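Exercise (ungraded).
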Amino acid sequence: MSGGVYGGDEVGALVFDIGSYSVRAGYAGEDCPKADFPTVIGVTIDRDDGSTPMETDGDKSKQSGTTYYIDTNQLRVPRESMEVMSPLKNGMSKYSVCWKSLNVFLTIYWNTRAKREKLTELMFEHYNIPAFFLCKSAVLSAFANGRSTGLVLDSGATHTTAIPVHDGYVLQQGIVKSPLAGDFMSMQCRELFQELSVEIIPPYMIASKDPVREGSPASWKKKEKLPQVTRSWHNYMCNCVIQDFQASVLQVSDSPYDEQVAAQMPTVHYELPNGYNCDFGAERLKIPEGLFDPSNAKGLSGNTMLGVGHVVTTSVGMCDIDIRPGLYGSVVVTGGNTLIQGFTDRLNRELSQKTPPSMRLKLIANNTTVERRFSAWIGGSILASLGTFQQMWISKQEYEEGGKQCVDRKCP
Amino acid sequence: MATGADVRDILELGGTDNDGPISKKDLINSDKKKSKKATETLTFKRPEGMHREVYALLYSDKKDAPPLLPSDTTQGYRTVKAKLGCKKVRPWKWMPFTNPARKDGAIFHHWRRMAEEGKDYPFARFNKTVQVPVYSEQEYQMHLHDDGWTKGETDHLFDLCKRFDLRFVVIHDRYDYQQYRKRSIEDLKERYYNICGKLTKVRAASGTEPKIYIFDAGHERRRKEQLEKLFNRTPEQVAEEEYLIQELRKIENRKKEREKKAQDLQKLIKAADTTTELRRAEKRVSKKKLPQKRDTEKPAVPETAGIKFPDFKSAGVTLRSQRMKLPSSVGQKKIKAIEQILAEQGVDLNPMPTEEIVQMFNELRSDLVLLYELKQAHSNCEYEQQMLRHRYEALLKAGSGAGCGGLTGGGIAGVPQGGDLSALNSTASSTPGVEAQSWPNVDDIKVEPKEQIIDVVGAPLTPNSRKRRESASSSSSVKKAKKP
């Protein structure tokens, strides 16, 4: 559309937001990504004895070598010897998507210079895209919420980070990271189940199950003729179950964890795929408490970890004093881990305690799941479809003239 | 609550509020009436698109046209409808374009109307940049040399300024610390504005006075330091500051009260003196001097002392005894006191209202009231003096080690004239705290109490004191009989 009310001008671009838990992809100008799939790949290595894996791709299986499976449809089928790995370990993405005719807009949360340059090189050399732009996900999250200045608190799967954004630029000196996030929660849940001596059985193994009373051990029948699955894949599937438990049961308490108060909270009933069901009361408050008060959490080496409130205040404290009111006035909360019930209320409380009373504190947290998980992608979609953005792409010509260092100059 | 007009509106009956309650006829034959009434009631109808309740806020049932200026409501309250034209559809085309704001002339594609093919890219005009001055090597060597900054560093700074459009916060964040030294934002700004200023001066045509932006780095640093301190205040410090401000306010209030009371007392005393003077002056010069003198002296009597009898100026016939009536402003206690004294002296409470008697009687009662007030003030002062003395002795006995001598003076100083114990307690306890912070000078406190004591109790030192004592003694017979 040309011009229009919002200053938009679509040139046809793809927006990718690669996170550690999921990848969001779609077209610029839309309000939610078309594809949202986990950031894991199933890899099978063809064996020489001729056993071919079952898949829908048909001809491609003839190639000997590694085959990759992406997206839940292909990923969650039990295959023999399929290893699960994250493509992000070495920073290279293995997704082969037809990018030739469209411009690619990528957002990523890590920002070491070497990796960015390598990514640019990959895009232009390997995939031959016409234009490319790399942006930090914190900036886009802020844009998606209508702010160009603010403190972006992103609590995802692998870490919780507080990133100050000023006028559309990330202040790198003020970034504070903490590893206490979604994966940490999953680990704690796993330990809880171990303590309760409950086995996590992913659904693919279950042929049938009988209803049992609360708390009593499950009674279920295993599926026959299951292929030999690898350990990593099995772990992955168990993780899925735990993540479901985590999302539905856990809650953050309003005030610092107190035994008596927790005991009085209403319990939530949850049933595992194998039929084991139980009421969870105090545990559901205790586990997420580790996010805000790491001294509570089990299995943490030393107390050097920062709780979420501390992460935010430290980050703001490292910034220039003139912009601090601006940062506190728009604290943007994003990330899937923040969708735990009670997270934003508790964060609000902690921050209002820690900031001086004259400081205006405003927390911006969208209520819908879509907006919080995909806010970086949405910001990218907005940015890539603006008329005034079209001068900022790194075109193939510029790349050829300037080399991969141009990404540092053009993508702040 | 739905009013008649609301119901009409909902049912779209039309018609003004003159029609009275809605009857069955309106509803059943409504279709006939609608067309007729719609044309008549133009002025009172709410604009289309405005909600009923909003309109009701403005113009309620019984009122006439509102006294507001009629505004154009066609703009705001319209539900936007799609304007579907009947013309032919203008075709769009996926066409390539170049963005003049780009340096490389890359070609992108987008959808545009065929009619606009070839026109400029509309968003190119938003490409504005900040003007960052560029200096040559020569200029640098000649004018911009500085000990703290190497050429490389200055170049790096200017490069960042250009890239980030003079956003110094971001520039400071992206500054290369490994290669160059660690600089604060003020350092960067200082260097930048210095160079800009020098360049404008050097490049300006001779004779013109260029306007240079002066950046005060010292001031900025101090300001930021202070902000940091303010930001890092603990809640205890904030509470302490609030407490101190409150204390200050309390002290100021007490001071005002004291001054007020002292003033009142002064007025009273003055009144007493002037009345006695007046009397004597009158007796002496009643026959010899002109009556004008009396008029000039009379206004000196303050109004608050004694009773002011209203001057009765009414048309027609009045009774002289009206002038003898006590005004209602005189309090109950005073009335009682007057009556008591008059009774004791054997004076008739309501004498025969002859001219002379009326005047003298009024004066007498005024004097009695004045006397009563003076007595009260005197007893108050005596009571306070007693209390202060006791307090002083108590403080002397208790904990009066070395160095508390000043404190006791301070303790007395802080005493409010109101004489309530609680206030005394608080000031006595606050002064040790005050001492601990070495906040106001103990010397100051010492000096002040003397003045205050003089204010309150220093009757013997005022100019009219002799006369006051005399006036007091003249009514001493009255005084003995009456006890406060």
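Further reading is listed at the end of the chapter. For now, observe: The first helix of chain A runs from residue 71 to 75. The mean pLDDT of chain A is 79.
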